[in-house]
Write a structure and sequence with these properties.
The chain has twelve helices and ten strands. The protein has a six-stranded mixed sheet, sandwiched between helices. The chain is of the alpha/beta class. The structure holds Fe4 H S5 and zinc ion (2 copies).
Length: 310
């Protein structure tokens, strides 16, 4: 095995795209620096960040790292777990989230779909016949934004890694959905309180799934072992498979693709004359693009059996 590029001790991991080997200690340092680099342009002093914790390796590593970096950037952290009601997977997610919050001495806010809305993700999928992950994404974004507003948090932080970003962007390009690229292509989205939209942080924007897993392992963090049974119905995992092939040809490709997305989206924003109209949903007051009733309210009304006509 190679030597750690920082201390010269025996390395335990090689990060191909960085062309560097590390011991566990210096890998953790490298990892946290990458997160710090994403956040350092923002003034987070005394701001509140709501971290969405599912119990998976990405959000577990995110919360742990943000908790460690708190002292450098002086923000406050709050933690949200959304109970989706997806059988064993959701039960295990809740257990792991509780364990981690307790370990870090942080209060865990639990938003249970069943208790708060009267329906679960599998039930909503059955009624609406929408694709599980796209429906689940709409619901989770709505809940995160709502809870962040209620808790006076300026930002929501999610565990999107570079593998997620690249797969979403590739899928968006190949299915001609440019609006999805726009939504994904930035590690930081500033709040827009005029339309009740809190800011979004994706601190692991330039970190891979593998790096998140290693960080969780080296810190001995609990993670959910079960995979979501609805995941297999999502094409996004197939796009991730395509990236594995690209990775073999060019190990820096994933990171460079994400960097390119950021540059392109900056240029697009500069040149954009007409910003797509963000407004408040007439039902729930949360932000929505271009239409009166947001996608969440449409789902909620359908599943709750109160379809209204506007
Ligand atoms: S929970 Fe929801 Fe994921 Fe399950 S339904 Fe898809 S999006 S896979 S992270
Ligand atoms: Zn070292
Ligand atoms: Zn709404």
């Amino acid at each position: 095995m190679a030597k750690c590029i920082v201390c010269g001790r025996e390395a335990v991991v090689k990060i191909e795209h960085a062309n560097a080997s590390f011991c566990a200690e210096h890998f953790k340092q490298y990892y946290e620096r990458k997160i710090l680099r994403v956040l350092k342009g923002l003034n987070l002093e005394n701001k509140c960040i709501l971290v969405a914790l599912s119990g998976g390796k990405d959000s577990v590593s995110l919360l742990y790292a943000l908790n460690r970096l708190k002292k450098d950037l002086n923000y406050n952290l709050k933690v949200l777990h959304i109970q989706l009601g997806i059988g064993l997977y959701s039960k295990e997610s809740l257990e792991v989230s509780k364990q981690l919050a307790e370990k870090l001495n942080l209060r865990l806010i639990i938003f249970d779909l069943e208790k708060n809305l009267g329906w679960t993700i599998p039930e909503a999928v059955k009624v609406t016949k929408k694709k599980p992950c796209s429906l689940c994404g709409i619901v989770k974004r709505w809940v995160m934004n709502k809870v962040a507003l209620e808790e006076n948090c300026e930002y929501v932080a999610t565990g999107h890694n570079v593998d997620d970003i690249d797969a979403i962007a590739l899928k968006a390009m190949l299915t001609y959905r440019p609006e999805d690229i726009e939504r994904t292509s930035s590690p930081i989205l500033e709040p827009n309180m005029e339309v009740n939209l809190v800011g979004k942080l994706r601190p692991q924007f330039y970190l891979t799934e593998k790096e998140n897993m290693l960080y969780a392992q080296f810190n001995g963090l609990p993670i959910v072992e079960t995979t979501c049974p609805l995941a297999s119905r999502s094409k996004i995992f197939k796009y991730k498979g395509i990236w594995q092939e690209i990775d073999k040809v060019n190990p820096v490709g994933k990171i460079n693709f994400a960097k390119t997305l950021v540059e392109i989206s900056k240029k697009l924003k500069e040149n954009k004359r007409e910003v797509q109209q963000l407004r408040k949903c007439v039902r729930c007051g949360m932000p929505t693009y271009g239409r009166d009733v947001c996608a969440f309210c449409k789902i909620n009304e359908k599943v709750s059996g109160v379809e209204r006509h506007n």
